[in-house]
Amino acid sequence: MLESLNSGAELSTCRKYRYALWRIWDNTKPKVMFIGLNPSTADENTDDKTITRCTNFAKSWGYGGFYMTNLFAYRSTDKSQLYCVDEPVGNDNDKYIIKYAKLSEKVIAAWGNDGVFLERSKIVSDLISPIFCLEVNQTGEPKHPLYVRSDMELKEYKRK
Questions:
Q1: Does the residue 1 lie in any domain?
Q2: Over the chain (160 residues), what is each successive 10-residue block's mean pLDDT?
Q3: Domain total for the chain?
Q4: What Pfam families does this protein's entry cite (predicted)?
Q5: Are 159 and 126 in contact, with CB atoms under 8 Å apart?
Q6: Looking at residue 126, what is its pLDDT?
Q7: pTM for this entry
Q8: Of 157, 86, 85, 90, nearest to 128 (Cα)?
Q9: Which residue among 5, 42, 149, 153 has the highest number of C-beta atoms inside a 10 angstrom radius?
Q10: Domain containing 74: what range?
């Protein structure tokens, strides 16, 4: 059972796509949004390693909760599957990204190198400004939260 005050997710009816997920523990504090590459196993009831890591970052920064969206809404534990499905982005995914960005004090890019697939990192970066990140890869894409130190400070993300 999750300890969150409010835990939920917006998934497609087939549950193959997750458009948003949230974990709220203090409604009196602002929220932060992370944009990952694609959702894995986490849903309205269950966390995965990435969600646990994002929870820890959000709490350490003093936020009351966070929203998780992704460049691609297709759920898979193997990111290479994004290249094999007909529709990895998911219908209306950008609308969900914009919706939850408006509810957030800051937006954190956290999608890793594969964000360049279908130019999704460019498309989403053009939708939202400013965007922050924890650290950037050698390619200039923002690092995934599992691959950065826990004491990283946010910095503004500028696409190359």
A1: no
A2: 75 97 97 98 96 97 98 97 97 97 98 96 96 95 95 89
A3: 1
A4: DUF1643
A5: no
A6: 95
A7: 0.95
A8: 157
A9: 42
A10: 6-156
